Amino acid sequence: PATAGQAAVTVRDGKFSWSRAPDAVPTLDLNLKVKAGELVMVVGEVGSGKSSLLQALLGEMVQISGDVRVLGSIAYTSQDSWIQNVTLRDNVLMGHPFDDVYYNLTLEACALKSDLHQLAAGDQTEIGEKGINLSGGQRARVALARAVYARADVYLLDDPLSAVDAHVGSHLF
C-alpha cells in the first residue's frame, strides 16, 4: 500500500480501448495521479467515460500504451450491484475472515443494520439469485459493504448511491 503523500494510483500517458484489434483507436487517453488518502470524484455526462476510467484502472480495458500503477489492493463496486445467491453475511465477507466488530461497523456505516430486522434470518438470510429478495437500494448497500469490509487500499466506486434514496445516501456519505 501507498504511504501518506505517496501516489496510490498513477496513470502516465495511458491509452485504452475496448477493442483488441491491432489497429484499435484509443477510447480513453489518460494521465492521473491520486495520492494515498485523497478522495477523488469523477463527474460528467452519461457516456463521458467515467466507468471506462474505472475499468481501465482495474485492467478490464485493453491498455494500448502508457504506464498504470496501483499500489495495494483494490475494492470495486459497479453501477449494477453484483450479488451472489448466498447469505447477506457471505455477500459482505466475500471470503474474508469474519471479524464481528468490523463487520458490525461496516453494516452500520453502509446503513444495513436496520435491514437485518426485516430479513427472516437476519444476516443469515439467503439473498436469492441476483439479490431478488432485496430492493435496489439494499443491493447497492450490500455491494458497498463488501467493498468496505475488504479493507482495501484503493476504492473504486462506480455510482454506488444511484439506487439509494436521499435519506440513506446522506447517511452513507
What does this entry look like structurally?
The strands form two sheets. Strands 2-1-3 form a three-stranded antiparallel beta sheet, with helices on one face. The chain is α+β, with helices and mostly antiparallel strands. The chain is globular. The protein is built from six helices and five strands. It starts with 6 loop residues before the first strand and ends with a helix. The mean pLDDT is 90. The protein folds into two domains: 7-72, no CATH class; 77-172, P-loop containing nucleotide triphosphate hydrolases (Rossmann fold, 3-Layer(aba) Sandwich). Keywords: ATP-binding, Membrane, Nucleotide-binding, Transmembrane, Transmembrane helix, Transport. It comes from Tetraselmis chuii. InterPro entries: ABC_transporter-like_ATP-bd (IPR003439), ABC_transporter-like_CS (IPR017871), ABC_transporter_C-like (IPR050173), P-loop_NTPase (IPR027417). It holds the Pfam family ABC_tran. This is ABC transporter domain-containing protein.
